[in-house]
Amino acid sequence: MADAGNWWAYEQLQQQPQWGGSVTGRAYKNRQRELANQRLLNDYFVENPVYKEVEFRRRYKMRREVFLRMLNNVQTANPYFRQSYDNSGRPSFSPHQKLTCALRMLVNACSADSLDETFRMPESTAIENLGQFCRIIVTIYQGRYLRAPNANDLDRLLQRAERRGFPGMNRSLDCMH
């Protein structure tokens, strides 16, 4: 019978998530994620943001319109990126926070832990968020952007490179931008 008890305990441990969520006995840390979200929105996404298009493009490596289109696409395709509420009724991380954190990790090669100070997102949540982001981006964009170029794509790229003074260049990193 002792073996059956150990097996049951092992099964229970295997069914628990590796991280995330409320855990009895764990200390609660009020990170004030709502304030971090409001600051992010005021900095970049309101009508008259603190940081204009030049700063947005430098920090996000894309135009604001592209970010907002991507935000809409990921929210439509995956409920994880929609605004939700935790068990205490507080809003969870906003779609803007989730997408920004995933992009910052990828674009700047920053660690998950480094997002806590700026966005108030703990390391385990940032890792989960990045995984969700990568999976949904592949699902949404693999047919158009994440595929090998076809003959039409190569012709278009070669013509563009030739107009810029780089004839015959299609695999040079210098011509990728």
Structure description:
It contains eight helices and no strands. The chain is mainly α. It folds into two domains: 117 residues, no CATH class; 28 residues. The longest helix is centred in the last third of the chain and has 19 residues. It is elongated and about 65 Å long. The protein starts with a helix and ends in a 14-residue tail after the last helix.
Spell out the blueprint of helices and strands:
Layout: H1 2-15, H2 33-44, H3 53-60, H4 64-77, H5 95-108, H6 115-119, H7 123-141, H8 151-163
Helix pairs in contact: 5-7
List keywords for this structure.
177 residues, 0% strand, mainly alpha, single chain, 2 domains
Can you give the mean pLDDT?
83
Low-confidence stretches: none
Cα radius of gyration in angstroms: 22 Å
What general outline do the C-alpha atoms trace?
A: elongated
Count of helical stretches: 8
**Overall tally of structural domains:** 2
Order of helices and strands: HHHHHHHH
Helix/sheet category: mainly alpha
The amount of helix comes to 55-70%
Distance between the termini: 66 Å
Q: What's the total number of strands?
A: 0
- The fraction of residues assigned to DSSP E strands is under 5%
- Profile the largest sheet: none
What's the short version?
By secondary structure, this protein is mostly helical.
